[in-house]
Automatic annotation (TrEMBL):
Domain of life according to the entry: Eukaryota
Species per Swiss-Prot/TrEMBL record: Pygoscelis adeliae (Adelie penguin)
Entry GO terms, CC: cytoplasm
Keyword Phosphoprotein: yes
Similarity remark: Belongs to the glycogen phosphorylase family.
Pfam families for this protein: Phosphorylase (PF00343)
Record has Transferase as a keyword: yes
Lineage, uppermost ranks: Eukaryota, Metazoa, Chordata, Craniata, Vertebrata
GO BP term, pick one: glycogen catabolic process
Subunit architecture: Homodimer. Dimers associate into a tetramer to form the enzymatically active phosphorylase A.
GO-annotated molecular function: glycogen phosphorylase activity; pyridoxal phosphate binding
Cofactor(s) needed by this chain: pyridoxal 5'-phosphate
Protein name stated in the entry: Alpha-1,4 glucan phosphorylase
Amino acid sequence: PQRIYYLSLEFYMGRTLQNTMVNLGLQNACDEAIYQLGLDLEELEEIEEDAGLGNGGLGRLAACFLDSMATLGLAAYGYGIRYEFGIFNQKIVDGWQVEEADDWLRYGNPWEKARPEYMLPVHFYGRVDHTPEGVKWIDTQVVLAMPYDTPVPGYKNNTVNTMRLWSAKAPNDFNLQEFNVGDYIEAVLDRNLAENISRVLYPNDNFFEGKELRLKQEYFVVAATLQDIIRRFKSSKFGCRDPVRTCFETFPDKVAIQLNDTHPALSIPELMRILVDVEKVDWDKAWEITKRTCAYTNHTVLPEALERWPVSMFEKLLPRHLEIIYALNQMHLDRVAALYPGDTDRLRRMSVIEEGDCKRINMAHLCVIGSHAVNGVARIHSDIVKNSVFKDFCELEPEKFQNKTNGITSRRWLLLCNPGLADVIAEKIGEGFITDLSQLKKLLDFINNEAFIRDVAKVKQENKLKFAAYLEEQYKVKINPSSMFDVQVKRIHEYKRQLLNCLHAITLYNRIRSDPSKSFVPRTIMIGGKAAPGYHMAKMIIKLITSIGEVINNDPYVGDRLKVIFLENYRVSLAEKVIPAADLSQQISTAGTEASGTGNMKFMVNGALTIGTMDGANVEMAEEAGEENLFIFGMRVEDVEALDRQGYNAQEYYERLPELRQAIDQISSGFFSPRDPGCFRDVVNMLMYHDRFKVFADYEAYIKCQGQVDQLFMDPREWTKKVIRNIACSGKFSSDRTIMEYAREIWGVEPPATKIPAPNLPRD
């Protein structure tokens, strides 16, 4: 079959035990067996460390995709790096984020199997020699890549795929070559330099930090993986008729490489290098093979997130790849110049090389010219990709650009984390929805079924009680389980506008204070997420949230009508607990900034209602469920663009809206930081004078929309009917559907229809 290779620098897997039991259909059997040993399975599950080899959406998407590819029976492999330290553990110390190393392998990892027999060399540095026999990359430093395989089981289909993660190992002669005469001890200690490549995950989400170690990581995973892919292609009896299989004609028919963002973009020049320099394939033929093999997924339109590597760094680290990129760019620009004679500005815009004081390689442009398909991750995002980010490229090759709206796996994000809800659904419509989430549509028949309404509401209440107990046990915080659980969990970033949520909390607080006798809908506002360690503003936002909580949660006038809780160390295993308990899901990024979002989908399928902007996949969620069944507010992309042309003036909103002014004045006067009144001046200064994400422009609409949320929450029956309608319309957002679209429209494979028999049954 054609093999699919999903290349990603992040796989945010979380825990594996329960997922494996669910997919093998063994959960009840194991539960019973463990119980008979006098143990509690849930207690055992809590001992497992999360595999936190990702930052957020991009890494978690890769994990969902692996589950779906296995469940659909595709011959797919996930390839990445086995980081010794994953995303840091977050501690909150007097309101501030403090990072702690995530030593997740401390007690070993039972799910992985080292495969030293497949260890491969990866080359760095050196120089290029142009000889009559061809090009040679010589005098390189070698690092070994040791593969570790983790099984990826499909859902009850007797399929197990592989995730292969590479770990860096120094060769035994490392630094002990002829020039190192003396210090043997020093040389052995220097092995760490090579092995640092797989030491730690870079903790940036949607931000590019041009560090040499990161570029080494990117080449390391690409070089090891491509050798593996080519070995497998050559030794496969389907590879080619050629007895020694040096014929690469059939390569794109047997191999599909999906690049998860630009991080594995070096696959393009590396495949060219292998084909041309090593396998002696003709350059133009090699370029055709490369383009037909690779496809690129874009994950963000934020300019600060785009990878732009200094040419000087490439010159030193990967000199041959730099030559190849220059040649590919020349070929590309020649074609553009022929089509648009005299349009030098277009050439500048479309070049892979950006000129300037520091010449840089634009990795996104490299991906676009080197792939046969480029996709965004939600319809609105794919439109922005086509019409602005890669506008020139889209004019050149419109057929290249596609949309593949993200999805989530219903196994982890419904069956595993919310068995109560899965049960009441299965009672009504059977179990088919687990592998065909579109069947949730059948729930529309039960929207007015009193018993079903009651059952759905009961499951939610049980989940809320369970989460409240967990918070009390872990963090010693008592919350009111009958309050609205208003949740915003995601990485902390200005564009995600946790600050807008803060302003609402303060406004609610001020309303209670100004009329304590009035009746209010009780709320527990929960905000969680990690800030990149070097992102000052994000860390200030966390301090602001915890400071607001300090004041509100200790004000006797407020009582249990309002609480603000910061959820410490948000991660996959915590998401599995909080999402099923949420009533309200906050998806409030500035329109045009969140490529898709996937947390939004998890909340929807788990019976929370969404308050959100028309951004990312929210647009399609509103389309599926009906806009009136979400709480949609604020500027659309067109409004944001219009405001940009007009000039955004925060002062104007500050002066016009008294509740906004009061909230900002409180933050800036030190009301929430009495021991350090100037604590939040940077935050206020940003909001007032250089807020790229226009928090104030959506404040009024947001507060009004939150009022509508309160209104509906006071009518539990109507609220639950909206919940049921949302669940029934969430079927599109299954990663099974997403992967089916990738398979058919990008990889050119049809998921196999034939069932694989169980291992204990005879094969045909």
